[in-house]
Amino acid sequence: TDTPSLSPSPFSFCSSPPFVLAMPTDAMMEVGEGGGGRDEKPAKVSGKAWGRIKKLGSKKYPSAIKFIIGNEFSERFCYYGLRSILVLYMVCFLGMERTESISLYHTWTALCYFFPIIGGFVADSFLGKYKTIVLLSFVYAMGCVVLSVTAIPYLTGPPGHADSWGAVLGLLLIAVGTGGIKPCVSAFGGDQFKPDQARQLQTFFSIFYFSVNSGSFLSTIITPILRNEQCPLQQPGNRCPDFPSPNTTTTTSISSSSSNPGWGTMFGGSEYVKGTSEGEGSDMPDCSFFLGFFVPAVLMVLSIILIIVGRYVAKYTLVKPDYKSNLFVLAAKVIRTSVSGAIKDRKLPKERRQTAKERIIAAHGRQTYKDLACLLRVLVVFLPLPLFWALFDQQASTWTLQAKSMNGTLGALVIQPDQVQSINPLLILVLIPLFEKGIYPCLNKLKIPMRPLIRMGTGVLFSAVSFLVAAFVELSLVQPTYDPACLDKSLYENSTAGHGEGMECVCEGDCPSMFWQFPQYFIITAGEIMLSITGLEFAYTQAPASMKSLVQAGWLMTVALGNFLVVVVENMSASLHLTPAETLFFYSGLCFGSFLIFLVIAKWYKYREVEVDVVEALGEDEIELGVDEEEEETGASRSEEEKGRRESEERRKKLEASADMDDVPLH
Fold this sequence. Notes:
By secondary structure, the protein is mainly alpha-helical. It has helices spanning 19-22, 25-33, 65-84, 86-93, 98-127, 129-149, 165-191, 198-227, 289-313, 327-345, 356-364, 366-382, 386-392, 398-404, 423-445, 452-477, 518-542, 548-575, 580-604, 610-618, 635-659; strands at residues 44-46, 248-254, 272-276, 409-410, 413-414, 493-494, 504-506, 624-626.
């Protein structure tokens, strides 16, 4: 979900000019090369959108890039690190039930993808990207500190009974911070490049993407290890069940006075004791979640230091915010025009009433209407996608809880349940070259069509299949002799006939391995590559140049809506008393239904020619490719420019006529 978009930012109002990435490769090479060999004078780029650039052909990377890449790596390490152990923190430390922990986790994730809209608006309209990043990074760091400090054992209550106010406050601050800076960091990096550095800019986004995935992979490996470390801060007798502890056996003793069954009873209302080989309480339980949250908080502070130091060492290129050019402001004006006009027209006879199209054209121009009509066609394609994200983001919640009920031992290696998530970023780094260099070219040679919407639909189908596999894995975890008094039905079987106080549960050692989860991770990662990366390309190429920010905002909103959908489904399944396996089957069925809806939408969608984007992005008066200053005013140069304008106008009219965008009604 953090894959950088093909535009410099998920929001064009938070991006550098669209010239570099909207231009065809050949055109980029011509401008970047400067028009010839060493002895030739470099070409000149001019136009009111760019100003005059006297020297082109500079190939040196901006020195600010290393600070921005370091900032992104540190921030992503922080985000994915705390996210990887978050559900287990809610279950084990706060004592939440399964449904409650999953609902809180996905509400937080949804907010993380909702606040980018606000952060992008603030950056573009008021503060600028740099100030927005710095300010919200401090908010982000404050949230990390609150979350880690309140995870110190016995500070807010004993583990299993700790107050949740620290978690809620910390997560809210983190959501505001990470969401607010999300649309600005990659765009801020793109601002550091000049128009002639097209190749360097492309390389930058590849490095940026690598930093995101490397930070994710390393944090999901390291943070669970820290979470399981021992330290003298925690008092004996309080561990989350089912996690291996040094010098302990698999026998657990639970003293419980609670009559409320479920995940919240794993600490039983009183002390939970992990037995040792001598049958006594452990003298050095794990430091648990304090270290797991503290180290990501340190990385977040490091990211702030890097971005601030870069300001004085590398001298960032800063783009001033412009409230009037904000596309969300334009969209709000268009909506106001349409709604207010419709209200006024209610008093008029039907024959004198205007349509929404007529009102928008009269108030904002025909081009604005065409762009909005094209925008709506793209947003309609996004309608089934929240189901994909609803399933995809459960890797850190439902699938982690599933892994918690499995055996992570492989020889001398012991895998923690919250480490299994690292399979996803690792597979991404492996599968992207495989798809781009192997699978897609082979399908093209076999003449099997793989247009963007076909790839995206296949990604949705793969996510449904992955949850079908996960549901069958969950069924294998249910023991036929399961006693509800046992806390984890897959790891433990009741060894006594008693219930409640003094009950012991013993792992028989034949629990299913966590590696059974690999197929479902492989399938959903393949689906992510086909949907997420292709979807970003589709959104960028199919949206009009003036509306790319709104399309990217719509893309992020599909992620937020998907996570809100998980909250609804989880609470519904709890009210219907569905088992985890039945809930997984239900998710798979929902996603398969969204796949069928997506097929219908894709069948009727008309692709928009990419060349229109190029003309719109460059504009007739925005970019002029000329020769050196001595020849600029000659008649030959002027005639070439006039000829280019005529050709651009003819191409624009031809493509617009074929698109028939005038026939798409807004109402």
